[in-house]
Amino acid sequence: MSNESGTAEQLPEEGNSEVSEDQVADYLRQHADFFITQQELLADLTLPHESGKAVSLMERQISILRGRGHDTRIKLNTLLNNARDNDQLFEITRDIVLALLGARDVAEIVQVTEDKLRSMENIDACEIILVKERMAGVPDSVRTSLESVLDKDYADVFRLKRTYCGSSTDQQLKYLFGTENSAIKSTALCPIMANGQIYALLAIGNTQENYFNVNLDTVFLDFIGNVVAAVLRREP
After folding, report:
1. DSSP string for residues in 162-174
2. In whole angstroms, how far apart are CA 48 and each of 22, 45, 214?
């Protein structure tokens, strides 16, 4: 036997009066208007409610639809918030890139990067330390360090040559940000590199413990590191 749409209906075999729950569910799916023609059944059907009281089928349906609407609103709000965050991130990225392209020397490159990143809401400290062997003639106003020193203290960054997010020891934090930023609890360390060589270490910190963690997306920071590397390499 088939319905109007040509789909065969699963009926109990002859001699078998039992109808399974799946058969009932399939039938109702194929006949969404069933209760329109069988309205008297609605008065006889009740469903348990979380409060312990029985509710009608229609009340339960309305409750389910409201729940779905709530879930949809949550998803929509999440999408809107993500879009808003992406817009803000794009504006910040554009601002940093344009400022770096206009920087006149190494000191200004470092200053621009640190100032722009420090102005971001989730960054409480920012420092750039240049690798002395890679950058000659750097003014005293710019921090430098021997590669061997940085490699020893921040081995994961130099070994893997990628951004590291997580906690650091008190000694590491003091070296990166100084005693005036003793409240820093988590860090993101980005190698500024080109052609496989690290030219500087970009360190940013947050006072919230575990804010920078291994699950954090580092695409933005990696991109800024690449831009800084590009403008540093153009310097004589």
Report:
1. S-EEE---HHHHH
2. 20, 10, 45
Is 172 exposed, middle or buried, given 0-12, 13-18 or 19+ CB atoms closer than 10 A?
middle
Q: pLDDT digits over 59-74, tens only?
A: 666 766 777 777 777 7
One-letter amino acid identity for 92? I
Q: In the prediction, which pLDDT does 10 show? A: 52
**pLDDT attached to residue 50:** 56
Q: Which residues of 133-153 are buried (b: 16+ CB within 10 A; e: fewer)?
A: ebbeebeeebbbbebeebeeb
- Judged against a pLDDT cut of 80, whether residue 36 lies above it is answered with no
Q: Parallel, antiparallel, or unpaired: how do β-strands 186-194 and 197-206 relate?
A: antiparallel
The count of residues in the chain is 236
Q: How far is CA 47 from CA 164, 196, 229, in A?
A: 54, 66, 66
Class of domain 102-233: alpha beta
Verdict on whether the full-model pTM lies above 0.70: no
The pLDDT value given to residue 89? 77
Side by side, which strands form the sheet with 186-194?
144-145, 125-131, 197-206, 186-194, 164-166
Burial class (CB in 10 A: 0-12, 13-18, 19+), 63: middle
